[in-house]
Write a structure and sequence with these properties.
Layout: H1 2-23, E1 28-38, H2 46-57, E2 66-71, E3 74-78, E4 84-87, E5 102-104, E6 110-119, E7 123-131
Parallel strand pairs: 1-2
Antiparallel strand pairs: 1-6, 3-4, 3-5, 6-7
Helix pairs in contact: 1-2
Bound molecules: zinc ion.
């Protein structure tokens, strides 16, 4: 199940970031918000990802954290006229010539952008920008 390995990968990354903050003298009580970017062409619904993540995060510092999932913009280049543009929707054509022969890279991954955390005395934000690796489960 792809969602599961992605959620596990995301959780690992979140907890690593929290550990990193703790080692810099910012002990984290809990994670309040997780912001990530999902590629336009990933076959995962944000809703599915969010509810799956909730299960994975149970009994960790990320339990109950709000998962905010944005769509990652995608850099595209029209093969017909050479126009470059950024796509924000899954279905697009060249804004210059209307062509649909578009070249692009990526658009599949999940990226962790930042975390909001509760530390001992204050709210804090950890900026990351790390790609989430899918974790191969034993199943
Ligand atoms: Zn074009």
């Amino acid at each position: 199940m792809h969602e599961a390995s992605l959620c596990q990968g995301l959780l690992d990354l979140v907890l690593e970031t929290v550990d990193g903050a703790a080692s810099q003298g910012k002990p984290v009580r809990r994670v309040t918000e997780i912001v990530c970017e999902l590629g336009l062409f990933s076959c995962i619904e944000p809703v599915t990802l969010a509810s799956c993540f909730e299960l994975f995060a149970e009994n960790t510092l990320a339990s109950g954290a709000k998962l905010t999932i944005r769509k990652a913009p995608l850099d595209c280049r029209c093969q017909a006229c050479g126009h470059t543009f950024t796509a924000h929707e899954r279905f697009f054509s060249c804004p210059n010539c209307g062509g649909d022969n578009i070249h692009f890279d990526g658009g599949h991954g999940l990226m962790l952008l930042s975390l909001s955390v509760d530390t001992e005395d204050t709210e804090d934000t950890c900026d990351t920008h790390e790609a989430v690796e899918t974790v191969d489960t034993e199943e």
